[in-house]
Amino acid sequence: MIPGLESHDAWSAARRQEPVATGSEDAGDSFVRPFIVTGGRTAPRNGGLRVDTLVRARAGAAESALEFERLSIVRLCAERALSVAEVAVGIGVPLGVARILIADLIAENLLDHQESTALSGHAIERIRDLVRAL
Amino acid sequence: MSGHSEHTPAACPLPVKIVVSGGFGVGKTTLIGAISEIEPLTTEAAMTEVSVGVDDTTVLPDKSTTTVAFDFGRITLDSSYVLYMFGTPGQERFSFLWDDVSDGALGAILLVDTRRIEDCYPVIDYFEERGTPFVVAVNTFDGADRFETEEVREALGVSSGTKIVHCDARNRASVKGVLVELIENVLLQHDSRHSSDTEAPERLVTG
């Protein structure tokens, strides 16, 4: 019925768990603790996303039933591909939080992603020429 | 890292990452801002518990949270490539960030202030151990003594194979020159690595 319902359930269930408390008492934070929005998880489901990995929303992703931050991410990268770091800044969360949310959205087929890869000599030459022409 | 490119969405160009490392106040953000198409953005990374343990808080007396900010900029090269420049503090107590920022990087610029050259030692070791191609860019501050390249080389303890250039981090053309030097260096390392082995098939990016 509702796309992404199963993961939403999992997300809500995870959210009921206590958020990580270690070492945060002395921080004096009065705002929402960052990992509340990830349901207390501090590591993404599958591996890590690099800071420069580009993500872009798939067609129709913005129409899915998504929660606040998740919806913000999908809307943010609907028009153009953005790096994980740009998404973190764009939705105002620390990098670690953005990584988890983005990894979930990728797993749910709502985002495409492109990681940097080993480049051929030809590709490096091309990049050099493009930089030179800036 | 390893083959995890099950699909190549046409929607996403390929990110190309360059690390800009150097001590506090050396001009990393200035350098990034001189050439970035966006105002440099700042993101926060949380320290892991392990690094909190080794972090020397006496150096940062006002430190009340276990996060560190780092800046980055973006240059859209064409429809196939987007270049990102990530600034990362060069001091060893931030080494937990280095892997995060350096993984998959094309190369690195080590920005040096000749008044605080010792800030660079750990990160030089790091790049050398990882085999990350890097160039040393000496930021020529107003009023800073201008040292000869060989003096800088000796002070840094880098081999003659490491390119050292002088730059003005505020100047776009100067920063562009540093980037070109770096990419030339990446090419040299790439060619020497691949001249002896059988050429591994690599993904071609069309576009």
UniProtKB/TrEMBL annotation, chain B:
It comes from Allokutzneria multivorans. Belongs to the GPN-loop GTPase family. This is ATP/GTP-binding protein. CDD domains: Ras_like_GTPase. Keywords: GTP-binding, Hydrolase, Nucleotide-binding. It holds the Pfam family ATP_bind_1. InterPro entries: Gliding_Motility_GTPase, Gpn, P-loop_NTPase. PANTHER family: ATP/GTP-BINDING PROTEIN-RELATED (PTHR42708), GLIDING MOTILITY PROTEIN MGLA (PTHR42708:SF1).
